[in-house]
């Protein structure tokens, strides 16, 4: 199964994303970030929680314990593989793990091979112990669920919902009983363009995501929609990124927007897809992308970056030779060579 299986399911996702000075694409759509584009009058439920305790914890200096895993300290990425959460031939990660702002929950996208289905799963820390993985059920919403994401200062959980090839970002809010009130985020996607599998949110609410034109659906570019006074603005394409075989996709923006990770397949790459980074300059433009090199990239599939909620670690998924499916790896961001070389 390797990269080809992941990206065959994501055939529609291999295309999304691009460059950075600021190119505005006309749109006929207006939106408000009351996020009321299309409200789904359903409620969030979860499957019955399994009470099996997986691990005790020891917190790091920021209060995050990461399911009891010892965080990486050196300049080599290590596998994030807490017991019960390691991918196999049955399922693999379709996103990096994402922790809630308080560090007491972990969410991730799981691709089930036999079902050709993407689901969101989670685990919670209860009385100091982590529970077994539980599927997140969203009553009334079908299709694939991908890319769970939190936003600074917001109590909601964001994710991508895919039904019949149509991609949309939803937000649910926490209630006494769990999650509820799913609402489609009001992004003004330009006419003739389609959203991709992934997105990322900066601390100021700006949202980064890949778009592909309906005329060239297999090549995507990364866009940013700025968030002003509760309203998402018309997306602008990030310039200076160039394009690979399938463009650029899977963006992960730094909380302060000082740098941007993304995934791309290029002739100079090491494998099927590689991870790249662009740094933001004082004038708001981003640098030409830099391949993260063999410190991160392999001869196989690498991508889907995720920055930890405490801002210390980079998570990413990889299908290293000899590994079991797509598993997340992690490394301290300040140990990346591209930061030390600056």
Summarize the structure in short:
By secondary structure, the protein is mainly beta. It has one domain: 6 Propeller (Neuraminidase), CATH 2.120.10.30. The protein has helices at 2-9, 337-340; strands spanning 22-24, 38-39, 44-46, 53-55, 78-79, 91-93, 98-99, 105-112, 117-126, 129-131, 134-138, 144-150, 156-163, 166-175, 178-184, 193-195, 200-201, 207-213, 220-225, 227-228, 231-232, 236-238, 248-253, 259-264, 274-279, 290-291, 302-307, 313-318, 327-332.
If you had to describe this structure to a student in words, what would you say it looks like?
By secondary structure, the protein is mainly beta. The chain has helices at 2-9, 337-340, and strands spanning 22-24, 38-39, 44-46, 53-55, 78-79, 91-93, 98-99, 105-112, 117-126, 129-131, 134-138, 144-150, 156-163, 166-175, 178-184, 193-195, 200-201, 207-213, 220-225, 227-228, 231-232, 236-238, 248-253, 259-264, 274-279, 290-291, 302-307, 313-318, 327-332. A hairpin with a 2-residue loop joins strand 14 and strand 15 (178-184).
Compute the number of structural domains. 1
Give the DSSP E fraction (strand runs of 2 or more residues). 35-45%
CATH topology: Neuraminidase
CATH class equals: Mainly Beta
Number of E-state strands: 29
Main β-sheet description: 8 strands, antiparallel
Terminal CA distance = 37 Å
Count up the helices.
2
Low-confidence stretches: 1-61
